[in-house]
From TrEMBL:
Keywords: Coiled coil, Metal-binding
Family matches, as PANTHER family: THAP DOMAIN PROTEIN
Gene Ontology terms for molecular function: metal ion binding
Domain DDE Tnp4: 183-215
Protein's organism: Pocillopora meandrina
Protein name: Transposase Helix-turn-helix domain-containing protein
Coiled-coil intervals: 14-60
């Protein structure tokens, strides 16, 4: 009967066990690293969601367009516009040039803004275009002072001043060619613009002129069968 070297068998078993332990430890280390990575990603996601939630809550509580967009009465009170839909339509009409505003203090040139080809310089915009336009309207319509409006909006007075001056230059460059500036009418008790409308005897509208500023109006009626012309002034309709 041959002799068996049990010491070699024991050594072999020990080597196998050591290799398996090493593999298990390596796999465990990988799993721990993967778990730590997933945990970090999950924490980042939770922080991002929480930050967005806090930002939304802050918008709802701050003096912003978000606070009043669903309240037509307050929106009209602060902006002079009928509702948020009118506000959005007007703002959209200024795109894409408004996205490239060159803010006061960084070589603002109103004429360059008309083309909409100027790229915005300087730091990233801290407010949305909606919020900036809203603050400008609030400054113009109810006439809130800069210090008051800046405090409500969480800005410094200098920040608000730069935004306001920039937008006024921009709005002037976009709208100066249109003779649409209204005149207050004592008869209508609000701002008005006047135009000429042509109507046939069958009540079909044949002509509509551009609008012009003015506080009074005249009504010109032509009777085609008799070539008679009748001129009515405002008092005929009071």
């Amino acid at each position: 009967m041959a002799d068996v070297d049990f010491s070699k068998l024991c050594n072999t078993d020990e080597n196998v066990t050591t290799d398996e332990n090493a593999k298990l430890q390596a796999e465990n280390a990988k799993l721990q690293a993967k778990n730590a990575k997933l945990k970090a990603e999950n924490e980042k996601t939770e922080i991002k969601v929480l930050t967005q939630l806090l930002q939304e809550q802050a918008k709802e509580k701050s003096f912003s367009v978000e606070c009043f967009k669903n309240n037509d009465n307050l929106f009209r009170f602060y902006t002079g516009l009928q509702d948020y839909k009118t506000f959005k339509t007007l703002l959209d009409a200024f795109m894409p040039a408004a996205k490239s505003l060159v803010y006061y203090g960084s070589n603002t040139d109103a004429d360059r803004l008309v083309s909409g080809k100027v790229e915005k310089c300087g730091p990233k915009r801290s407010l949305s275009l909606e919020q900036e336009f809203f603050l400008v309207l609030v400054r113009l319509w109810p006439g809130l002072l800069e210090v008051d409006l800046a405090t409500r909006a969480g800005l410094s007075q200098s920040q608000l001043s730069r935004i306001f001056i920039t937008w006024i230059d921009f709005l002037h460059s976009k709208m100066r060619c249109y003779p649409i500036w209204p005149t207050y009418s004592n008869y209508k008790h609000h701002n008005t613009a006047k135009g000429l409308v042509g109507i046939t005897p069958s009540a079909a509208v044949t002509f509509v002129s551009d609008l012009y500023a003015g506080s009074d109006f005249l009504l010109l009626i032509i009777f085609p069968k008799t070539d008679a012309v009748t001129l009515f002034d405002r008092s005929a309709y009071q």
